[in-house]
Design a protein that fits this description.
The protein is of the alpha/beta class and 317 residues long. The strands form two sheets. The chain has an eight-stranded mixed beta sheet, with helices on both faces. Helix 5 links the parallel strand 5 and strand 6. One of its GO terms (molecular function) is monoacylglycerol lipase activity.
Amino acid sequence: MEMTPGLKLPRSPSAVDVIAHHATGTFEPARPSGVMARSDEFVTVDGIEIHYSAWGDRADPTVLCVHGLSRNGRDFDPLARALEDDYHVVCPDMPGRGLSQWADDPAERYSNGAMVETLVDLCDTLELDTLRYVGTSMGGGLGMALAGGPLADRIERLVINDMPPNPETDSAPEALGRIMEYVPEPPTVETVTALEEYFRDLYEGRFSEMTDAEYRRLAVTSARRTDAGRVTAHYDPRILAGEDDEDAEAPDPWDVWEAIDAPLLVLRGTDSDILPAEPFERMIETQPDAETVEIDCGHAPALNTPEQIDPIRDFFA
């Protein structure tokens, strides 16, 4: 058979592929033995050890993915897996989340300003001169601050996943109240499967639809053992203690949004109470060239299906 140079033909599914399909409910070709899709990396940024998942080839363009308030970088596994053939995908755990170090001074180190500085320093440490950025919820807010501020000359394309410029005034009060209630007091349970049930109760009907295998992955990557041997969520319960300097003159978040020059893609859950319809429409009025995708869910799209991943891939191309 004559082949065009450089053309890659799809291979037939192997027995391993079929087994993986039955185990996960999804079909993804098995990787050759010895090839690692994801690596765990650690760097120290301003005195705090930061864990990040790295996907793809460092020589390829970088995509930086930043998670929501009490989540971690493993939330981006489906998106990173879809992008890794073309991009170097970096998914950090922000301080106090996942495998990253907890802060001794949470009021200072968990503030929005401190997290913006952490991401700038992370990009400097990894020598990321240009990057594409995906931010879910809190990560989206940090992305706006970066693209409209210290990384304006480095962020080439910005994806905001279900986050308004100023959630304190833009989001529904009941949504903010819900966060203030559950984040500081994660449950402590006997088993990982019990924690998985907690996450299902918390996120089903808010996150976009996830399979049983995806909820299992979420639980496993979001669990830690306590000193007493029980199981709880893998974040510092003090993450809401972050306080920005009240004396500093912070710019209006909507002015920051308007100042962003990078091309924009905004994803929104149609029933989101973090990004309701009114601020979403104002975002588009302020940035009329922004592309938009609405997903049938609450807060937030999980970036785990073709209808959510393909627009990001196309936007980055």
